Amino acid sequence: MSGQFATTTLTRTATVAGGVFAPGHLGELTQYVPFELVDDVLEGTHTVQARVRCLPSRVGVYFLLALGLFPALGYRRVWDKLVAGLHGLDLHVPSEKALRDLRRRLGPAPLKMLFEVLAGPLAQPSTPGVRYRHWRTVAFDGCSSIKAPDQPRIRSLLGKVQHHWGLAGYPVLRLTVLCETGTRGLLGAVFGPTSTGETTQASRLLPLLSPQMLLLADRGFDGDSLLGAIADTGAQLLVRISSKRRPAVMATLPDGSYLTRFNGLDLRIIEADVTVTTSAGQRIGGRYRLATTLLDHRADPAETLVRLYHERWEIESAFYSLRHTLLTGRVLRSCDAPGLEQELWALLILYQALRRAMVDAVESVPGTDPDRASFTVALQVARDLVVCATGVLPDSTNTPVAGRITDAVLAALLPSRRPRISARKVKCPTSRYPANPTTAHPLTSQKIARLDIEIHRETLKPNNQSASSSPSGQAGQGRRNQVLQLLRAAQDRTWHATEIAKVLGWENYRSVCAQLGYWAKEGLLQKVARATYILAPAWMHNDHQQPAQPTPLTGLSAS
Fold it and tell me: Which one, of 111, 83, 85, lies nearest residue 23 by Cα?
């Protein structure tokens, strides 16, 4: 029994900055946000303290980051976490007002610059799940569920969302990020009131794209001008487009996809029916229409791109980690516009530092997918190391960063990603009764037993409807494809509007001229004289990687 009362004495050594700078640390994450970087940012934004007193500016930056690590604690309790592992040092104990004044003195500028320095791709090219062929897969999307305090200054800045049952409880802001799908690291971020649309914010992230990237995006980002701006950056794109759009069929390809043009941009359209069979035997399906600048059907088969598009959902996991794991669903603490901006930049810095630590951990074991790293594990260990002031500075051997966060992440790797389908429902409904009880999606997450992808093959069909209908409807789509097929069959001659109307059996000549002019503005046709057109030069004698010839329309001739 005496062995049960044996004791062990542990001695721990902590190395931190000296003097009043000692509380300025973030545990082991300090190695990803080092002192030298923070000092350089402070100097670049002209926010270095005029005189060194009890609360230098560098300490203020780390204090702001620590506020994000402990969102449920007040200023003094967070300060206690920073100095808990610094026993024996004669440190000043600031008041809450002094800490508030420190935040105001810093402002949002140094935090914004610090995030811009840390943001960027995290993984090496050889890391699994990061690249498709030689392109790094990225995605951008918006999140409008981050709540701000319901204070007059915040309401005047953000407003409140209007629902059919009234105003929302808290003002919310919209955060749009460009994310590396393989690691969920951030390449850039833009935020503001929800009155600013996602596409407007996303356009500010376009300078971060490069020709080495493949962008994945949802239906909200399928505007012609935005797609053209993305293509101008040199990046490839794979974007889901709305089912209401009626792309022109310029040429069909053997894999079922077809070539088209949006406002002068050559694209390839893939339409696929995706059907999921759950372990309970339930079948759930839907149609996806994807637009991509990858025009070669042999190098990039349609089914491969449909499966690749699923990687876009990794950005939703990034939002979940930021909104629910890091913030634990809490309301932001700042009650004015500069403080709100400062706090959000600090949260994004903290998120990026954690992701970088997780990527370093999985890359220390070659072949490990970053999806298996747990954000929750990394966050909890990082909090413990702040309290202990452990790993603030690297050891004297100058070895790479590999400490307790790496050990914890590798010891608790998640299993390989399991195919499953989750329930799609409102997280905080106003009623406990579902609005649509007949929805096809399951009410709980289920395993996927089978996944079927059927490529919908587009064919050109004759359409004898009246030409007076709107060109944007289904009838307009059929007439447009008929005209393209007619001009493609005789590329060496010009066609007058009266000839086209006669061959296709259209009666309203005025409507024919209006439609031909509309399609010429889209870049499908070229106007060579009054009411005279030819096929656009880009599609004349150009098979775009030798696609299969379109199926000829019955009843049409070149006479």
Answer: 83
